Amino acid sequence: MPSYRVTLAVGALAPGTAPAAVLPEAARLVAELTVVEAQDVRLLRGVPCAVVRFEAPEDDVALTVAEHAVDGLGSTAEVRSAIVTRRDGPRWTPVR
């Protein structure tokens, strides 16, 4: 089964939300729909990002999983952008 990842650029946090709570919440939301393979926090162009790697049978399913994570995080943090990529050999290819 292909690997995908959703990279969520995080903005303002909801009142009372600790920064350390965002990544586990994103992974929990993804895990509601599929198997989570890995999770990480990255700083991309100065913006903190929660990155969750997961399994999906095809691109459409991966996009649905990412949308679920974005919608669910709305009560925890502002999601400025979400990018879904698919593992193709040694590369991560954007999914549109």
Question: Can you tag this structure with a few keywords?
Answer:
single chain, 96 residues, Alpha-Beta Plaits, 2 helices, 26% helix
Please give a quick description of this structure.
With 96 residues, the chain is α+β, with helices and mostly antiparallel strands. It has two helices and five strands.
- Tally of domains: 1
CATH topology: Alpha-Beta Plaits
Which structural class best describes the helix and strand composition? alpha+beta
In DSSP terms (H or I, runs of 4 or more residues), the helix count works out at 2
Overall CATH class: Alpha Beta
Number of strands: 5
Q: Could you say which overall geometry the principal axes of the C-alpha atoms support?
A: globular
Please tell me the overall pLDDT: 96
Strand arrangement within the widest β-sheet reads 2-3-1-4-5
- H-E order: EHEEHEE
Main sheet record: 5 strands, antiparallel
pLDDT < 50 runs, ≥5 residues = none
Roughly how much helix do the residues carry, as a percent range?
A: 25-40%
- N-to-C terminal Cα separation, in Å? 19 Å
What's the CATH superfamily, by name?
BMC (bacterial microcompartment) domain
The value of Rg in angstroms is: 13 Å
Which CATH-level-2 architecture?
Answer: 2-Layer Sandwich
Strand content: over 45%
